[in-house]
Design goal:
tt1808, chain A; 9 helices; endonuclease; endonuclease activity; hydrolase; 3 domains; disordered C terminus; alpha+beta; about 350 residues
Length: about 350
């Protein structure tokens, strides 16, 4: 099992069992140590992953950091854990500040099991930065996160390489946060700029009130259209191999863009359980079927989109349950149900005879 697969297991665990991790010790056992193990560190070797690490030079008797990781015989990563209910803040960096300055550590991780904050010394050498260069929610692994985390793996660890990425990530994250803020609450100057060629009169408070919601909506539409365009391109490139044979009277069956996008969403939800090539779309007159192995005996979901009110069909064995949805985004609300069905096919619990 690779790093990505191991992290997906932990993501599922934090989503389904977080209520059982209320103590710090439970959190360490269930999430933090497996997280370090996923990066190829031997958590059972106290010379490599040192629990309750204490350095006399800190000057505060009895103060310890939860874990110190040795690479090539030197302390390189410090890890401090807090209860899962803790909202991580700079106040929780106190111990990491002190230990970072008196060891050869180059990186520090602050975590509550769900949120992970990675810090280094980009601002002043050997002084831990207040702001992390990388933050993520373990239950929501996205984008290129796995490739960034792999750089911290024992076999890939390279200080200079990570620092280059850290510099980029720090400012990219800050820029993304600013853009997100502009998208949600467009400032007056920005609204003036993008509407300057559309409105010739004075930019009064009334004009601002009129255009600000439009600018916000336009931002969202740009993002949605960009995502839809990428999905459509991906489908066009893989349609021949991934879309199963339809019924003989296929001229009467029209596969809509919504059905194609819904298929891609379902496939993305279960991609870490079943290989994407096993997920096939087979359109019918009344619904669009999503099957495993192009097998009618292995239904994963059905998209009932050929009507004014849309439904997604969910399966527990051979029994279908329809759930009303207003937007395609609501398919993600049923991610756990879809993943559970996918796991049943993976484990062979559902009949798999071919049609």
């Amino acid at each position: 099992m690779g790093v990505e697969e191991k992290l997906r297991v932990l993501a599922d665990r934090i989503k389904t069992h977080s209520s059982a991790m209320l103590t710090e010790e439970a959190l360490k056992t269930a999430i933090v140590l497996p997280f370090l193990a996923a990066l190829d560190y031997d958590v059972f070797n106290p010379d490599e992953v040192i629990p309750e690490f204490c350095a006399d030079a800190v000057g505060k008797k009895g103060e310890k950091v939860d874990y110190a990781i040795k690479i090539d015989g030197e302390i390189r990563i410090l890890v401090e854990c807090k209860p899962i209910t803790t909202v991580l803040d700079r106040v929780h960096l106190a111990q990491l500040y002190r230990y970072f300055s008196v060891t050869n550590a180059k990186f520090a991780i602050l975590t509550n099991g769900r949120a992970f904050h990675f810090h280094t010394d980009l601002v002043a050498t050997n002084k831990l930065d207040d702001l992390p260069f990388l933050t993520f929610d373990l239950s929501d692994l996205q984008g290129q996160l796995t490739s960034e985390l792999k750089k911290f793996a024992k076999t890939e660890f390279n200080v200079d390489g990570i620092l280059q990425s850290a510099h980029r990530l720090k400012y990219t994250s800050a820029i993304k946060k600013e853009i997100g803020g502009v998208m949600e609450n467009p400032p007056e100057d920005f609204v003036r700029m993008v509407t300057g060629g559309l409105y010739q009169g004075r930019f009064t408070a009334q004009v601002k009130e009129q255009f600000t919601p439009m600018v916000k909506a336009a931002f969202r539409e740009i993002v949605r259209e960009s995502v839809q365009s990428r999905l459509s391109t991906a489908l066009a490139e893989t349609a021949d191999s991934e879309i199963g044979d339809g019924p003989s009277d296929e001229d009467e069956v029209v596969t809509t863009e919504e059905e194609r996008e819904g298929f891609m969403i379902v496939r993305a939800i279960v991609r870490d359980i079943l290989k994407p090539s096993r997920i096939v779309m087979r359109d019918q007159k009344s619904y669009c079927g999503i099957l495993v192995d192009n097998n009618n005996r292995k239904p994963l979901a059905r998209l009932w989109f050929n009507r004014s009110v849309k439904y997604i069909g969910l399966f527990d064995g051979e029994k279908e349950e329809k759930a009303k949805i207003d937007t395609l985004d609501e398919i993600y609300d049923y991610a756990d149900r879809l993943r559970n069905t996918a796991k049943e096919y993976l484990d062979g619990a559902i009949a798999s005879s071919s049609t």
